[in-house]
Amino acid sequence: MANDSDLKVNIDLLVESESRLRKLKKEFNNLEARNDDIREHWGSSGITDAMDEFVDNWDDYRKALLENIDVVGKLVKATIDGFTGLDAELAKQLRKGKKK
Questions:
Q1: How many structural domains are present in the chain?
Q2: CA distances to 33, 56, 58, 63 from 43, in Å
Q3: What is the pLDDT along the chain (100 residues), one digit of tens a residue?
Q4: Which of 40, 56, 73, 88 is an S-S bond match for 21, by CB 3.0 to 4.6 Å?
Q5: What string of DSSP letters covers the chain?
């Protein structure tokens, strides 16, 4: 009967995905603007201005990326919880049915 299932969920893949998203979020959280550390190596004021703009834009995009990673991570976690809970409930109901 299990082979007749229309829905198959790879929980291991979801758990691995959640773990990788957590690691990505941690890495992106740990990235800081380092333009002050390397400003002296940029040379002319034109390059410095361009790099400052790039770093400012990167910070904005990094924040948005972190928010998106967080949202996807929560969705993956909810999916894991939902399917594992459903699977446990179905197994419980099957055990009850076999006892009767």
A1: 1
A2: 18, 18, 20, 28
A3: 456 677 888 999 999 999 999 999 998 888 765 656 677 777 788 888 888 888 888 888 989 999 999 999 999 999 999 999 998 998 898 888 887 6
A4: 73
A5: -GGG-S----HHHHHHHHHHHHHHHHHHHH----HHHHGGGS-SHHHHHHHHHHHHHHHHHHHHHHHHHHHHHHHHHHHHHHHHHHHHHHHHHHHHHHH-
In a domain, 25, yes or no: yes
- Compute CA distances 100 → 1, 87, 91, 97, whole Å: 19, 20, 15, 5
CB 7 within 8 A of CB 52: no
Residue 3 resides in a domain: no
Which amino acid belongs to residue 22? Answer: R
21 closest CA partner among 78, 59, 60: 78
Whether residue 73 lies inside any domain: the answer is yes
Q: Is residue 2 part of a domain?
A: no
d(CA 17, CA 14): 5
